[in-house]
Give the backbone structure.
Amino acid sequence: MKLTFFGTGDGRQVPAPGCHCRACLRAIEKPQYARLTCSGKITDGLDVSLIDATMADLNQRQQAGSFERIFLTHYHANHIRGLAAYKEAEHVTIPVYGPEDKKDLEDVFENPGALKFQRPLVPFKTLNFGGLQVTPLPLNHSRPTFGYLFQQHQGNLAYLSDTCGLPSTTSAMLYGYELDVLVLDCTHPPSHQADQDHNTLSQALAIHHDIAPKTTYLTHISHELDCYLLDHLAELPDNVIIARDGMQITL
């Protein structure tokens, strides 16, 4: 099983529009430090699943017909904008899985084109796709949101973007689970006032400590956090890694 990060940034991305902070200037000068909006794909043999559809050019990155399904974490506009190109795909049907949330989404559901929206997922109810098991995990966000636990015989990986802390039910499931990889929302530097949608670095490290995965990859990173990490990266635990666009994790 392999996870590929398409994007590891927050909704503003890095460089953020009009910003001239150290992190944004670095990303302009050195594109390897740029961040697109958080998304990725899971590959299990020949089976490919997309996680979110944040990029308008997603169809150019992953052609319709080259993957089996899409898992949406939630229906904020910046996480579904890439669906539009797939609606017009021919000779293919694309199953789309996600939480129950119909607010302001009439056009998405009533004119799906090639997209085939599945019944809303049930928290903690595992789906089986050949050798890949996928379990939706509730997260703390401003609209219904899931993370996903991906499991197969070679290992397991939890992808938890767009959350502030974790619901007690999700924490209880993952606590002591012997998780190989945790991919976790970490949007803000420690000094940032906590909000309802995204973790600060302090919150993310507390989750890492409690769940105790073998390795944690931080994602959904803002330019403010990148600025902070320019001076504090060495302070992170050895098994906490800052994810980068294009990075791949293989189990």
